[in-house]
């Protein structure tokens, strides 16, 4: 039979511990009794009861909370920020609306470092009149959780979506789309805290390269490569095969650079390679301008490297094609240009986002087609961008056929034959490569290449 000891006070002797014998149970007090720790004493092993010790001196300015304490917060004179302590499992903090003014002047609860509130590393807002909350730190996954009601009603955490300005803004269902066809700033005023809505989808396309220019009796000039193509999506629209993950954003301004297309080559003497397009930039994403098309004969100019590479001029020697995906990123931002051929001369097409430029063809004489671009519905409409330009040709007498621009690039090379035979420019805001110039026999005319198409930056996010 268990024994019962009834005393008024139990104290340890000379700092010794009172420990129960393994397997036994010690019961303190009886039903209705109150057990009180002496002043200065502390307890361990009893666990947290879900209550705090309330500080009855109301807080009227921002402060850092201490675990185990509850605070009456008076926002009569203005909003107050409460910074939570670094969380450990079982930590507890209470907050109560002292003057019932939270609806007018809110309380912002700020987590410590990377700690979370209801699973989000972001501030929470208490904006309900008379609200009282008790927050307990659970673990690193959910962080601080309310134990007195729902996440929204009791803790006052307001679901927040991304809000931002900049560019031309359109809507597609629950999504906003910011389109930049020139330089600007994407300014984020709220980074969002709703799961799946604290990152942005993006499309960044650089300017395309221009085609090479030819003198009369040239070899036919290579086409310009498409501007680099980079895309990130969280699956809210039909993205291209090149899409990777969406990009997290925070409240700040993000400068936007939209690359221009390479300038076309006008009446060159001697033959001149095309010009590279300019880079487009958003946050950590940089797409490289497309490489210019090659030209010949001597001195031969190789197709340029870039987002996608420029095509080689018509030549039976070593193809002087431009490399794509330069500098390299993953997934690749583009592809190399196509090779030129001789007898008769037909130049290679520029590389595109999803396909290399095509080689020229000798019979029938045809300049190489531009590599295909990529199709995305990020702006709500399936649109192909970043196709390579078409290669030019050289033919005496009857006209040869120039290559056509890759899907999304347009920019076909001009036909060969007597007279001027200009390459066609890539389409603006697609990053398409410009067409390579074609040339023919007497009368002697210089021919011009097509300019590269300018780039574009599109940003998409859930706003409601």
Write a concise synopsis of the structure shown.
The protein is built from no helices and 24 strands. By secondary structure, the protein is mostly beta strands. The strands form 6 sheets. Strands 11, 12, 14, 15, 16 and 24 form a 6-stranded antiparallel sheet that branches.
Describe this structure in words.
The protein has 464 residues and is mainly β. The protein folds into 2 domains: 53-146, Sandwich (Jelly Rolls); 161-464, no CATH class. Helices cover 0% and strands 23% of the residues. The chain contains no helices and 24 strands. Strands 11, 12, 14, 15, 16 and 24 form a 6-stranded antiparallel β-sheet that branches. A 5-stranded mixed β-sheet has the order 1-3-5-8-9, with no helix packed on it. The model is unreliable at 14-22, 45-49 and 152-156 (pLDDT under 50).
Largest sheet: 6 strands, antiparallel
Count helical runs: 0
Shape: rod-shaped
Helix content, binned percent: under 10%
Q: What number is the mean pLDDT?
A: 84
Terminal Cα span: 68 Å
Helix vs. strand class: mainly beta
Radius of gyration, in Å, reads 35 Å
Binned strand content: 15-25%
> What order do the helices and strands follow?
EEEEEEEEEEEEEEEEEEEEEEEE
């Amino acid at each position: 039979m268990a024994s019962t000891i009834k005393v008024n006070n139990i104290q340890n002797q000379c700092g010794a511990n009172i420990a129960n014998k393994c397997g036994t149970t010690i019961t303190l007090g009886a039903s209705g009794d109150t057990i009180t720790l002496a002043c200065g004493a502390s307890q361990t092993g009893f666990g947290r009861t879900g209550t705090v010790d309330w500080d009855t001196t109301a807080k009227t300015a921002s402060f850092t909370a201490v675990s185990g304490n509850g605070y009456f917060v008076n926002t009569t004179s203005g909003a107050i920020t409460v910074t939570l302590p670094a969380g450990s499992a079982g930590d507890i903090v209470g907050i109560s609306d002292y003057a019932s003014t939270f609806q007018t002047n809110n309380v912002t609860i700020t987590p410590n470092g990377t700690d979370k509130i209801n699973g989000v590393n972001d501030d929470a807002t208490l904006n309900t009149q008379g609200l009282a909350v008790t927050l307990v730190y659970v673990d690193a996954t959910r962080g601080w959780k309310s134990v007195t009601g729902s996440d929204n009603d009791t803790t006052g955490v307001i679901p927040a979506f991304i809000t931002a300005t900049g560019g031309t803004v359109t809507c597609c269902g629950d999504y906003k789309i910011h389109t930049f066809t020139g330089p600007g700033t994407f300014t984020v005023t709220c980074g969002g805290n709703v799961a799946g809505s604290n990152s942005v989808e993006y499309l960044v396309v650089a300017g395309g390269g221009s085609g090479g220019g030819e003198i009369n009796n040239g070899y036919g000039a290579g086409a310009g490569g498409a501007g680099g193509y980079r895309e990130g999506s969280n699956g809210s629209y039909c993205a291209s095969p090149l899409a990777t993950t969406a990009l997290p954003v925070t409240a700040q301004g993000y400068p936007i650079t939209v690359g221009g297309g390479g300038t076309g080559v006008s009446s060159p003497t001697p033959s001149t390679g095309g010009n590279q397009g300019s880079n487009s930039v958003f946050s950590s994403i940089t797409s490289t301008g497309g490489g210019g098309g090659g030209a010949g004969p001597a001195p031969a100019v190789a197709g340029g490297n870039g987002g996608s590479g420029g095509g080689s001029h018509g030549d039976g020697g070593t193809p002087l094609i431009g490399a794509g995906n330069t500098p390299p990123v993953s997934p690749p931002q583009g592809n190399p240009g196509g090779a030129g051929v001789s007898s008769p001369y037909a130049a290679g097409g520029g590389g595109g986002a999803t396909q290399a430029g095509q080689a020229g063809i000798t019979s029938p004489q045809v300049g190489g087609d531009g590599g295909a671009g990529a199709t995305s519905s990020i702006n709500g409409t399936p649109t192909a961008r970043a196709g390579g330009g078409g290669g030019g040709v050289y033919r005496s007498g009857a006209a040869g056929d120039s290559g056509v621009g890759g899907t999304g690039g347009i920019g076909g090379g001009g036909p060969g034959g007597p007279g001027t035979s200009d390459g066609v420019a890539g389409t603006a805001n697609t990053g398409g490569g410009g067409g390579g110039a074609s040339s023919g026999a007497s009368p002697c005319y210089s021919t011009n290449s097509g300019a590269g198409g300018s780039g574009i930056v599109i940003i998409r996010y859930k706003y409601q």
